[in-house]
Specification:
Structural class: alpha/beta
Strand content: 15-25%
Number of helices: 7
Helix content: 25-40%
Strand order of the largest sheet: 1-2-3-4-5-8-7-6
Radius of gyration: 18 Å
Number of strands: 8
Length: 191
Protein backbone atom coordinates (compact mmCIF):
# COMPACT_ATOMS: atom_id res chain seq x y z
CA UNK A 1 0.00 0.00 0.00
CA UNK A 2 2.52 2.58 1.11
CA UNK A 3 6.07 3.01 2.27
CA UNK A 4 6.83 5.55 4.98
CA UNK A 5 10.18 6.71 6.28
CA UNK A 6 10.15 6.19 10.02
CA UNK A 7 13.01 8.64 10.38
CA UNK A 8 12.44 11.49 7.92
CA UNK A 9 15.66 13.18 9.01
CA UNK A 10 17.31 10.71 6.61
CA UNK A 11 16.11 13.09 3.91
CA UNK A 12 18.53 15.70 5.31
CA UNK A 13 21.52 13.42 4.86
CA UNK A 14 23.88 13.53 1.91
CA UNK A 15 21.84 10.72 0.33
CA UNK A 16 18.46 12.26 1.21
CA UNK A 17 17.55 13.17 -2.36
CA UNK A 18 18.57 9.69 -3.49
CA UNK A 19 16.30 8.15 -0.86
CA UNK A 20 13.39 10.28 -2.00
CA UNK A 21 14.08 9.53 -5.68
CA UNK A 22 14.15 5.80 -4.90
CA UNK A 23 10.76 6.06 -3.17
CA UNK A 24 9.36 7.89 -6.19
CA UNK A 25 10.80 5.26 -8.52
CA UNK A 26 9.19 2.44 -6.53
CA UNK A 27 5.91 4.31 -6.77
CA UNK A 28 6.24 4.99 -10.52
CA UNK A 29 6.99 1.29 -11.08
CA UNK A 30 3.80 0.42 -9.12
CA UNK A 31 5.77 -1.51 -6.53
CA UNK A 32 4.16 0.70 -3.90
CA UNK A 33 1.11 2.91 -4.16
CA UNK A 34 2.04 5.73 -1.84
CA UNK A 35 5.04 7.27 -0.11
CA UNK A 36 5.24 9.24 3.09
CA UNK A 37 6.87 9.97 6.41
CA UNK A 38 6.16 9.29 10.04
CA UNK A 39 6.67 12.32 12.27
CA UNK A 40 6.82 12.96 16.01
CA UNK A 41 6.11 16.67 15.92
CA UNK A 42 4.07 18.61 13.33
CA UNK A 43 6.85 21.21 13.22
CA UNK A 44 8.86 18.65 11.24
CA UNK A 45 6.45 19.16 8.36
CA UNK A 46 7.69 22.72 7.86
CA UNK A 47 11.01 21.25 6.81
CA UNK A 48 9.81 18.43 4.55
CA UNK A 49 6.54 19.50 2.91
CA UNK A 50 8.07 22.36 0.87
CA UNK A 51 10.78 20.05 -0.50
CA UNK A 52 8.95 16.76 -1.08
CA UNK A 53 5.57 15.48 -2.24
CA UNK A 54 4.16 12.86 0.09
CA UNK A 55 0.95 10.87 -0.17
CA UNK A 56 0.83 9.92 3.51
CA UNK A 57 1.82 11.57 6.76
CA UNK A 58 1.70 9.53 9.97
CA UNK A 59 1.56 11.53 13.20
CA UNK A 60 0.68 11.14 16.86
CA UNK A 61 -2.76 12.47 17.77
CA UNK A 62 -4.89 11.92 20.84
CA UNK A 63 -7.41 13.70 23.01
CA UNK A 64 -4.37 14.98 24.93
CA UNK A 65 -1.84 15.49 22.13
CA UNK A 66 -3.59 17.75 19.62
CA UNK A 67 -0.49 19.39 18.15
CA UNK A 68 -1.36 18.24 14.62
CA UNK A 69 -4.70 20.05 14.88
CA UNK A 70 -3.55 23.12 16.82
CA UNK A 71 -0.60 23.73 14.49
CA UNK A 72 -2.97 23.92 11.52
CA UNK A 73 -1.13 21.10 9.78
CA UNK A 74 -4.04 18.66 9.80
CA UNK A 75 -6.14 21.09 7.78
CA UNK A 76 -3.22 21.96 5.47
CA UNK A 77 -2.48 18.30 4.77
CA UNK A 78 -6.08 17.61 3.83
CA UNK A 79 -6.14 20.67 1.56
CA UNK A 80 -3.06 19.18 -0.13
CA UNK A 81 -4.90 15.82 -0.49
CA UNK A 82 -2.37 14.06 1.73
CA UNK A 83 -3.62 11.02 3.65
CA UNK A 84 -3.35 11.45 7.40
CA UNK A 85 -2.65 8.36 9.48
CA UNK A 86 -2.62 8.86 13.25
CA UNK A 87 -1.00 6.82 15.97
CA UNK A 88 -0.62 7.05 19.75
CA UNK A 89 -4.35 7.70 20.09
CA UNK A 90 -4.16 6.25 23.60
CA UNK A 91 -0.94 8.11 24.43
CA UNK A 92 1.12 4.91 24.40
CA UNK A 93 -1.63 3.25 26.48
CA UNK A 94 -1.39 5.72 29.38
CA UNK A 95 -4.91 7.04 28.78
CA UNK A 96 -6.30 3.53 29.22
CA UNK A 97 -4.43 2.69 32.42
CA UNK A 98 -5.99 2.90 35.84
CA UNK A 99 -4.26 5.09 38.39
CA UNK A 100 -2.74 2.04 40.08
CA UNK A 101 -1.25 0.75 36.80
CA UNK A 102 0.41 3.99 35.63
CA UNK A 103 4.18 3.90 35.99
CA UNK A 104 5.59 6.11 38.76
CA UNK A 105 7.64 8.12 36.27
CA UNK A 106 4.38 9.78 35.17
CA UNK A 107 3.40 10.85 38.69
CA UNK A 108 4.71 14.38 38.12
CA UNK A 109 1.55 14.85 36.03
CA UNK A 110 -0.76 13.61 38.80
CA UNK A 111 -2.90 16.74 38.59
CA UNK A 112 -3.64 15.98 34.96
CA UNK A 113 -4.20 12.26 35.63
CA UNK A 114 -6.66 13.08 38.43
CA UNK A 115 -8.58 15.40 36.07
CA UNK A 116 -8.58 12.69 33.39
CA UNK A 117 -9.82 10.02 35.83
CA UNK A 118 -12.55 12.38 37.08
CA UNK A 119 -13.61 13.19 33.50
CA UNK A 120 -14.03 9.48 32.78
CA UNK A 121 -16.27 9.14 35.83
CA UNK A 122 -18.21 12.31 34.95
CA UNK A 123 -18.83 11.17 31.37
CA UNK A 124 -19.81 7.70 32.61
CA UNK A 125 -17.85 6.16 29.78
CA UNK A 126 -14.69 4.11 29.40
CA UNK A 127 -11.36 5.75 28.62
CA UNK A 128 -11.23 3.64 25.47
CA UNK A 129 -14.56 4.94 24.22
CA UNK A 130 -13.73 8.56 25.07
CA UNK A 131 -10.42 8.37 23.19
CA UNK A 132 -12.02 6.70 20.17
CA UNK A 133 -14.96 9.12 20.08
CA UNK A 134 -12.52 12.01 19.96
CA UNK A 135 -10.58 10.49 17.06
CA UNK A 136 -13.78 9.57 15.19
CA UNK A 137 -14.98 13.14 15.45
CA UNK A 138 -12.10 14.34 13.26
CA UNK A 139 -13.10 13.91 9.63
CA UNK A 140 -9.62 14.69 8.30
CA UNK A 141 -8.18 11.45 9.68
CA UNK A 142 -7.91 8.71 7.06
CA UNK A 143 -6.43 5.85 9.10
CA UNK A 144 -5.69 4.94 12.68
CA UNK A 145 -2.59 2.93 13.51
CA UNK A 146 -2.76 1.09 16.81
CA UNK A 147 -0.38 -1.34 18.45
CA UNK A 148 -1.63 -3.66 21.16
CA UNK A 149 1.28 -4.64 23.34
CA UNK A 150 -0.21 -6.79 26.07
CA UNK A 151 0.27 -10.52 25.85
CA UNK A 152 -3.33 -11.19 26.82
CA UNK A 153 -6.21 -8.96 25.90
CA UNK A 154 -9.81 -9.97 26.18
CA UNK A 155 -11.70 -10.37 22.94
CA UNK A 156 -14.43 -8.13 24.38
CA UNK A 157 -11.97 -5.22 24.67
CA UNK A 158 -11.16 -5.53 21.00
CA UNK A 159 -14.86 -5.80 20.21
CA UNK A 160 -15.43 -2.45 21.91
CA UNK A 161 -13.35 -1.06 19.08
CA UNK A 162 -15.39 -2.88 16.45
CA UNK A 163 -17.67 -5.90 16.21
CA UNK A 164 -16.17 -7.35 13.03
CA UNK A 165 -12.64 -8.16 14.11
CA UNK A 166 -10.90 -10.17 11.42
CA UNK A 167 -8.32 -12.54 12.81
CA UNK A 168 -5.50 -13.34 10.46
CA UNK A 169 -2.27 -15.15 11.05
CA UNK A 170 -0.53 -13.96 14.17
CA UNK A 171 0.94 -11.56 15.04
CA UNK A 172 -1.50 -9.29 13.27
CA UNK A 173 -5.12 -8.47 13.88
CA UNK A 174 -6.69 -6.24 11.28
CA UNK A 175 -9.76 -4.37 12.27
CA UNK A 176 -12.08 -3.34 9.45
CA UNK A 177 -13.59 0.14 9.29
CA UNK A 178 -14.40 1.71 12.58
CA UNK A 179 -17.33 3.93 11.87
CA UNK A 180 -15.84 5.53 8.77
CA UNK A 181 -12.22 5.11 9.72
CA UNK A 182 -9.84 2.30 8.95
CA UNK A 183 -7.74 0.91 11.75
CA UNK A 184 -4.51 -0.98 11.30
CA UNK A 185 -3.53 -2.94 14.40
CA UNK A 186 -0.16 -4.55 14.92
CA UNK A 187 -0.18 -6.86 17.88
CA UNK A 188 1.31 -9.78 19.70
CA UNK A 189 -1.75 -10.55 21.79
CA UNK A 190 -3.24 -13.93 22.49
CA UNK A 191 -7.01 -14.32 22.29
Amino acid sequence: YGLLLHNPSQLNSNIGQEIYNTLCKLKSESLIDKIGISIYNPNELEEYIPKYNFDIIQSPLSIIDQRLINSGWLKKLKEMHVEVHVRSIFLQGLLLMSKSKRPDKFSKWNKFWNEWDNEIIYLNNSALEICLQFIYSINEIDNIINTVSKKKTSKSKINIIRDDVILEEEPEIKVKKIIKKKVKTNTDIEL
